């Protein structure tokens, strides 16, 4: 499944870059993540709990950052495994700034398997869009909070 | 196929149900017919801590005329809607839609309130309540509020219902003279959900001039919606086959269609226009009196 889209964040490129590469701040934006535990260079262990209405599932997984070109682009790999199944995704995130607002473009591939894929197949795409939306909404809140400090 | 442990509560009345719900907030889920929630729980895609079973509450399965509308209790099953003489005469779109839902087991257990509140992107009723400009009545321990269908559906599996609220009633208008309605559905052969569902309500005279039109769509995107672009192109116009077809090309305008293993996003967009056209065409014929609604016997005896 292709995952792609854009989002606008109310901060300059350097601030967005800092958010995406700081594990403590990134954890605040990943929906349902409690914290990111370092697990090698640019690699973190993460426990996440997803929920959309009645659906909910806990995943244990990892987040890895690669091909970092500050403050332009990076690759993000996310992997998770849990009772409802597994998910795996890899994509490129690129940042473009226009008068203080950063446009984030993401493009990648995701795989979902297990029970969640066989039963929730028709909703996975919509759910992944919603989760991305949650991520960027949280990122906007985090950036605004940081700007106030 | 065994759900995670949960605590089961069967309140005796609505007030008690609301109190329990208020106490447990998001950790509690309401169980009505169970045909959406239980499959999720058995697969452990949902594992609520508390189940509040309102399915046993009395007095919430009425269908009656009330103040120029028809009031339908949230616990009315799909089968009851199919069988309702009152609805068949005064709001035939609902029984027509209900007869297309799932299979007989689902229709016998599933409820209108449960289906609308769950807001599955492939559920049938959402398209129909949108086309009917229905109203949802929700209740909490602090009172009652009315939400118009056009504002009710927020996103994937998400409605305006807040934590601590229960959907208690759906109110639909009574069909007026010169109005025709139709629901057309493309079934997912395995699940029975709508790949695309189109619910049309058309008011037209013998001259085929469309005085008013409402088109509700389900299955296409992450939530049901009103195809306002199609409505705009047809309202006030004398309908022709080509005019309807051209307008229906916009049935998925402004919507990001879902794609899955059965139907890609492009295919869904195409099917949205096809089923919108079929629904509007049938609704128009019924409005001008050329065709009658589905016969009572046919709807009742339907076995799929």
Structural account:
The complex is a heterodimer of chains A (149) and B (304). By secondary structure, chain A is of the alpha+beta class. Chain A has a single domain (2-148), classed as START domain (Alpha-D-Glucose-1,6-Bisphosphate, Chain A, domain 4, 2-Layer Sandwich), CATH 3.30.530. Chain A contains 3 helices and 7 strands. Chain A has helices at residues 13-21, 23-29, 115-148; strands at 2-9, 33-38, 43-52, 55-69, 73-82, 85-98, 101-113. A 7-stranded antiparallel β-sheet of chain A has the order 1-7-6-5-4-3-2. In chain A, a hairpin with a 2-residue loop joins strand 5 and strand 6 (85-98). Chain A is globular. Chain B has 304 residues and is of the alpha+beta class. Chain B folds into 3 domains: 7-53, Uridine Diphospho-n-acetylenolpyruvylglucosamine Reductase, domain 2 (2-Layer Sandwich); 63-173, Uridine Diphospho-n-acetylenolpyruvylglucosamine Reductase, domain 3 (2-Layer Sandwich); 179-287, Enolase-like, domain 1 (2-Layer Sandwich), CATH 3.30.390.50. Helices cover 34% and strands 25% of the residues of chain B. Chain B has helices at 14-24, 37-42, 78-83, 85-90, 93-98, 104-109, 112-118, 125-131, 149-152, 228-234, 241-248, 265-287, 296-300, and strands spanning 7-9, 28-31, 50-53, 63-66, 69-73, 135-140, 143-148, 153-155, 158-159, 166-173, 179-187, 194-204, 210-218, 225-226. Chain B is globular. The two termini of chain B are 25 Å apart. The A-B interface holds A 52-57, 83-84, 115-116, 119-127, 129-130 and B 29, 36-37, 39-40, 43-48, 118-119, 121-122, 155-158, 188, 191, 193, 221-222, 256, 258-262.
